[in-house]
Specification:
Blueprint (H helix, E strand, L loop, with lengths): L3 E10 L2 E11 L4 E5 L6 H9 L6 E6 L2 E2 L5 H4 L1 E4 L11 H11 L4 H14 L15 H13 L5 E5 L7 H18 L2 E5 L3 H7 L2 E6 L2 E6 L1 H6 L4 H6 L6 E10 L2 E6 L7 E4 L16 E6 L4 E3 L11 E6 L2 E4 L4 E7 L2 E7 L10 E6 L5 E3 L9
Parallel strand pairs: 3-8, 3-9, 6-7, 7-8
Antiparallel strand pairs: 1-2, 1-4, 4-5, 9-10, 11-12, 11-14, 12-13, 14-21, 15-20, 16-20, 17-18, 18-19
Bound molecules: adenosine-5'-triphosphate and magnesium ion.
């Protein structure tokens, strides 16, 4: 039995359809992350799960029970909103304890819960303040504390860390991960942060325009995307998309990438990754998807043992990030981003030999944008 099941949920605001028959199911203890561009319907879906907005059609089941027409309180959910509203006249302590008080939890237990979450969220020193006396990030942590003080069936978090500074955000991310590992609660979590999505999720749902395009493990959505949208949305910097012609040479497929004024780059397609669909595309244009990390600087010491396809290009931009270096260089008619090691000594304007790991490349249909290999 799923902890949460959404069956063909539709939500219209007037004549605008915001959720277009969304279905998904998650197991008890699963950490599901919802991602997608602004306005795609993430918060609307969260509000529907919480019971804050009635759905137009479809069903919502929690632990196998149809809750579609239940009130938020009946659903036993704790939620942190994107626009976290705290009770302005109450102190931080009272805000955190309020949900417990409503559920008639004894005073001692309430106090213990407040201490526990305040400690976790590093807000113990703020317990006697009012929300107006807090910074945005502090308020957000209080809103988080209010949810975490309870032990509901499901936690819903809508961008709970968006107002925190980079360092605190990373700390909180780790705390949430630990908390999930310890308590094994079911969590649905919205974020715009790629790293948050990849590190926290058991599964990721990529939404676009009221639909879920792909629901899979972080590894699946990142390495095995169903279409160009998912491929381009996950990962930063984004996947490079190149126009190439698919050719069949002897027994193997290869991709020809033409560049004006330069020799064509020929990229052999690994046999292990051939798909039946490719046969229809021979002689036609396809979209080749290569992530920045599929490129590496040629290492001459490896000699014949080096893997991947060699090519060289004149680097246009060098951007050191600290841990690695991002390069911009022409490949085909476009410029691509390549991620190389921090020791790469190339300067802008100089040629560099690179290898492409075709074993991780993906192909798409240029019209439908669906994956073909
Ligand atoms: N109460 C409402 N009335 C009318 N339209 C609404 C209402 N609430 C949301 N919408 C519209 O529904 C769409 C989805 O909004 P939603 O808040 O779910 O997006 P989101 O994915 O959470 O975006 P963001 O990442 O910016 O938070 C938007 O086009 C929004 O304008
Ligand atoms: Mg939102």
């Amino acid at each position: 039995m799923s902890a949460l099941e959404i069956r063909e949920v539709r939500k219209d605001f007037g004549s605008t359809r915001v959720l277009k028959d969304v279905s998904l199911a998650i197991d008890s203890g699963e950490f599901l992350i919802l991602v997608g561009p602004s306005g795609c319907g993430k918060s609307t879906l969260m509000n529907a799960i919480a019971g804050l907005e009635p759905v137009t059609s479809g069903q919502i089941l929690i632990a196998g029970k149809d809750v579609t027409w239940q009130t938020p309180a009946e659903r036993d959910i704790a939620m942190v909103f994107q626009s976290y509203a705290l009770y302005p006249s109450m102190t931080v302590r009272q805000n955190i304890a309020f949900g417990l008080e409503m559920r008639k939890v004894p005073k001692r237990e309430r106090e213990e819960a407040v201490e526990r979450v305040a400690d976790l969220l590093q807000i113990s020193h703020l317990l006697d303040r009012k929300p107006s006396q807090l910074s945005g990030g502090q308020r957000q942590r209080v809103a988080m504390g209010r949810a975490l003080a309870r032990e509901p069936k499901i936690y819903l978090f809508d961008e709970p860390l968006s107002n925190l500074d980079a360092k605190l955000r990373v700390e909180m991310r780790t705390e949430i991960k630990k908390l999930h590992q310890r308590l094994g609660t079911t969590i649905v979590y919205v974020t715009h942060d790629q790293i948050e999505a990849m590190t926290l999720a058991d599964s990721i749902a990529v939404m676009r325009d009221g639909h879920i395009l792909q629901l899979g493990t972080p590894d699946e959505v990142y390495n095995d995307p169903v279409d160009m949208f998912v491929a381009g949305f996950m990962g930063s910097p984004s996947m490079n998309f190149l126009t190439a012609t698919l050719e069949h040479e002897a027994v193997d497929y290869r991709l020809r990438v033409s560049t004006q004024g330069e020799e064509d780059v020929l990229l052999p397609w690994p046999q292990a990754h051939e798909t039946p669909a490719m046969a229809e595309y021979v002689g036609r244009k396809v979209v080749l998807g290569l992530r920045p990390e599929h490129f590496s600087e040629e290492d001459e010491r490896l000699g014949e043992h080096a893997e991947g396809t060699l090519f060289s290009a004149r680097v246009t931009v060098v951007e050191p990030t600290g841990a690695d270096i991002l390069l911009r260089l022409p490949l085909g008619e476009k410029e691509v981003t390549a991620r190389v090691g921090p020791k790469c000594r190339v300067a802008a304007g100089k040629r560099l030999a690179l290898r492409i790991d075709m074993g991780r490349a993906v192909l798409f249909d240029p019209q439908t944008e669906q994956r073909l290999a």
